[in-house]
Design goal:
The relative contact order is 0.14. This protein has a 5-stranded parallel beta sheet with strand order 2-3-4-1-5. The longest helix is centred in the first third of the chain and has 28 residues. It is elongated. α9 links the parallel β3 and β4. α2 packs across α3, α7 crosses α9 and α9 packs parallel to α11. The chain starts with a helix and ends with a helix. By secondary structure, it is α/β, with parallel strands linked by helices. The protein contains 12 helices and 5 strands.
Length: about 250
Amino acid sequence: MMTNDTIRKLNELKLFGMVHAFSQQIESAATGHLSFEERVGLMVDHEVTYRDDKRLRRLLTNAKLREPACMEDIDYEAKRGLDRSVMASLALCNWIRHGVNVIVTGATGLGKTWIACALGNQACRHGMTVKFERVPLLLEELAIAHSDGTFRKRIAAIGKHDLLILDDLGINTLTAERRADLLEVVESRSGTRATVVTSQLPVRRWHDYLADGNPTVADAIMDRVVSDAYRIDLVGESLRPKRRHSANS
């Protein structure tokens, strides 16, 4: 009876990890030899693990990463210019804490989005908030936000994420309005929040793409995104045939 009352109270306190650990200790003789302090310590550890796992699931759900990628699964066998030491450094997530950007460029099929999502996954595991956005869809949503009066609210929300992933910059033509909206996005994060940008266009072609008759906006975007950023320039052959082969074998 006392056991049931204790479990009820732990549930009321929302100590669900401790509930599980307490029930395990009651049902198993494996912890019988442990001291009181050790048994309580195990329950507290279980609660901490439970809360950490719950937070990670929430962060990953909110991030909406396009790929189920993680740093441990990065393929270094494929010759595409990835530097292990650079990736190991990025895995520490200090660049995010300092608001430094990462740019991932390369032809289609080289894993730009996958690497960006692996960085996003790692950030979530460090307890950071992440948001994945495809640039064409984001700019469409911002155009609608202008119409319904939620644009400033949307920009403010974008600026608050510890890490923003902007995927597929350069695949659609930019109007003057969408170019200005893109500047607002990067301006909301400049110097304080980190952004990962993926693009099929090499960085040397970004200014021409972003300018289209308005070099001032292009200069502003380039200054906020490219300056002091880590650059990952992928080269080589597409990995997609390899992935299809692996899936069928």
